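Please, structure for the following, as tokens.
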Amino acid sequence: MSNFLTVYRSTTMDRPSLVSLFSRILITLCFGIAQPHQFCSNKGTYSVSSTYSNNLNLLLSSLPSSIAENRFFYNATVGQGPDKVYALALCREDLPSEKCSSCVDTASQDIKQQCPDKKEALMWTDSNCLVRYANRDIFAKMEEEISSFCVSNPNDFSGDVARFNKTLHDLMAELITQASSGPKKFATGYVNFTKPIYGLVQCTPDISERDCGICLQKGMGEMESCSGGREGGRILSPSCMVWFEVFRFYSIPDGTVDDPLQFPPAAAPILPPQPPSPPSPANASPSSPAPSPANASPLNETRNKIVIIIVAAVASLVTLVTIICALFLWRRMKQKVESKSIHF
């Protein structure tokens, strides 16, 4: 009951802030989603009455119904040899089927108007779906030659930008891991901050886990120059999409609980133990006890034996010299006494 009262009071007392929030969301949606983003290649053209044109029209017209049957991704080819056309369509995995089909239908018509007579082109429509075709194989590989599109939220983030960026990168790193390793190559989630931060990442599901991770990480790298310090941004590429905002922009399946992601606090680095510093000569104790025999090394034992032998040998030599000197002196004294006796 107390939680309900808290929510009720906040919604009734903070109407200006809610108006500001909704206006920001409206500005964001109008700024980026309404305009399509297309790429028209200059590597080849076709004539309106050519076989390539007929194959392209046939393939593009089949995409809306085909993607409705295949959920959110579809690819196919029509024709042979130089007239063969490759095409694919991708929708955000969280979109309802009818909205996905409608988006692909719009993109399939607009791409011919925006890129007339081009043998290769792609279009992102409403940041919800991608339609792409070419006269070369574009399936199951990450596209690296075509530049991505940047769509930035016009609102600057007011607060601790450094902490915001750190939290954002933690969130997106987790979503990139989930998406690249999953069969749908799609993930959404959010983290609590001064404002919740919501993220969405997606790859075309025909590329590998490695290529998906590379594509999404590259998108996050481009996000700094695209939307650094902003409340949201999108990177739309031929093989993947990266998107974040401070409001929920993605759909959640019915019955799904969207709990915030939790990140453990960063642990302090564990440093290896440092060896004790040897005592300086000035501080060394003059009467340091000798190591006990139990702890003595074989080298120390050998040195001790050598010292004992040397000391014993020196002592024996000194004793022998002393005895010889004593005998010599005794004989001289005896000779002096005998000589005196003979003289008298």
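The longest strand covers residues 85-91. The chain has a mean pLDDT of 81.
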